[in-house]
């Protein structure tokens, strides 16, 4: 499943080679439990500033509510999907974020975490 807040042609988007991973707990609010160094380089947030919080810290005035709702839908249903969303760095600058969200299940089949592989995208 692919969701884009606006209908951008993927052939007109260049993904950065410096992707990052965020892992969130499958508990209310989906708090971040781990980020990679690339996350801190690309967003300006240090791990200690986001661990324990949810990723709404990356949202701003132009972030699509539909894209945010798609994250919630994927987490509720356990489905995997790609979401293209306008996010904001700590300094307030905008960037397009291509997020591949997957659920992680334990041996009993219960979702315990979500992993989000993210790449900054540039419109070309």
Automatic annotation (TrEMBL):
InterPro entries, per the entry: PAS, PAS-like_dom_sf
CDD domains listed in its UniProt record: PAS (cd00130)
Keyword Phosphoprotein: no
Cited SUPFAM superfamilies: PYP-like sensor domain (PAS domain) (SSF55785)
Record keywords: Chromophore, Flavoprotein, FMN
Cell cycle as UniProt keyword: no
Domain PAS: 29-118
Pfam families referenced in this protein's UniProt entry, alphabetically: PAS_9
Identification of the protein by name: PAS domain-containing protein
Species in which this protein is naturally found: Neogemmobacter tilapiae
């Amino acid at each position: 499943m692919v969701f884009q807040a606006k209908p951008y042609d993927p052939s007109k988007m260049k993904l950065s080679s410096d992707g990052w991973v965020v892992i969130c707990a499958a508990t209310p609010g989906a708090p971040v439990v781990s980020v990679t160094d690339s996350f801190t380089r690309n967003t300006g947030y240090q791990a200690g500033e986001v661990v324990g919080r949810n990723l709404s810290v990356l949202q701003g005035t132009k972030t699509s509510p539909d894209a945010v709702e798609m994250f919630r839908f994927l987490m509720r249903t356990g489905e995997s999907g790609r979401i293209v969303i306008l996010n904001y760095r700590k300094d307030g600058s905008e960037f397009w974020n291509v997020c591949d969200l997957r659920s992680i299940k334990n041996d009993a089949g219960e979702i315990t975490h979500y992993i989000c592989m993210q790449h900054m995208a540039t419109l070309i």
